[in-house]
Backbone:
C-alpha cells in the first residue's frame, strides 16, 4: 500500500508540473518546483505547502493549488494573477469524513445544525462538501490545518464555490462521493 501511495504522489507531482507548463505555455522541463510554507519559507528546497514553480530563475506567473483523493487529482490555476491573488482547491471523498467525532472537530455549530437538518442519506455527501470547502479555503489562505477547522464557517462564505465534477474523466467514471471546492481571493 505504501508503494502505491508513493507512486500516486509522484504521479500527481508530475501531472501538476505538466498542468502548470500547459497553462503557462512552456515546456515542463523549464519549470523548477518551488513550494511556499508559512513556517519553513519558500524555494526549490521546500517540498510542501503552496505549490509554485520557478521559470527562468524567477517565480512563474502562476497562482496554483492542487488536491488528491481516491486516485484522482484536481488542479486550479490563475496565470498572471493580480498581486495578492490566491487560489485553493480541494477534492474530498465522502468516505474519508465518515468517522466518529469528525463533526465535532471539523464543523462549526451552524454547520453541524445544517448537516443534522438533512435526511440521513444526504449527510455523508454534504459533510464531504463542507470539508472540501474548508480545505480549499485554508489552502488559499495558506493557514492549512494550523487553523482549527471548527472555527471556520463555510456555509455561505464569499470567494468560495462548490465545483461540479464530470460523471467521467478520460473515459473512466469518477468514484461516487467525491466533492470539490474552489477558493479565490486577493488580499
Residues:
Amino acid at each position: 500500500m505504501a508503494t502505491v501511495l508513493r507512486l500516486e504522489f509522484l504521479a500527481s507531482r508530475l501531472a501538476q508540473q505538466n498542468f502548470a507548463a500547459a497553462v503557462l505555455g512552456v515546456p515542463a522541463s523549464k519549470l523548477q518546483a518551488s513550494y511556499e510554507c508559512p513556517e519553513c519559507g519558500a524555494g526549490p528546497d521546500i517540498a510542501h505547502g503552496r505549490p509554485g514553480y520557478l521559470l527562468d530563475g524567477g517565480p512563474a506567473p502562476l497562482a496554483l493549488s492542487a488536491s488528491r483523493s481516491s486516485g484522482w487529482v484536481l488542479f486550479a490555476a490563475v496565470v498572471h494573477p493580480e498581486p495578492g491573488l490566491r487560489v485553493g482547491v480541494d477534492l474530498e471523498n465522502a468516505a474519508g469524513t465518515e468517522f466518529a467525532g469528525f463533526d465535532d472537530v471539523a464543523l462549526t455549530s451552524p454547520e453541524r445544525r445544517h448537516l443534522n437538518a438533512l435526511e440521513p442519506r444526504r449527510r455523508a455527501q454534504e459533510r464531504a462538501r463542507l470539508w472540501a470547502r474548508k480545505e480549499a479555503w485554508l489552502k488559499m489562505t495558506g493557514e492549512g490545518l494550523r487553523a482549527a477547522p471548527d472555527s471556520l464557517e463555510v456555509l455561505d462564505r464569499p470567494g468560495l464555490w462548490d465545483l461540479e465534477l464530470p460523471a467521467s474523466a478520460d473515459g473512466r467514471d469518477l468514484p461516487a462521493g467525491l466533492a470539490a471546492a474552489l477558493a479565490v481571493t486577493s488580499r
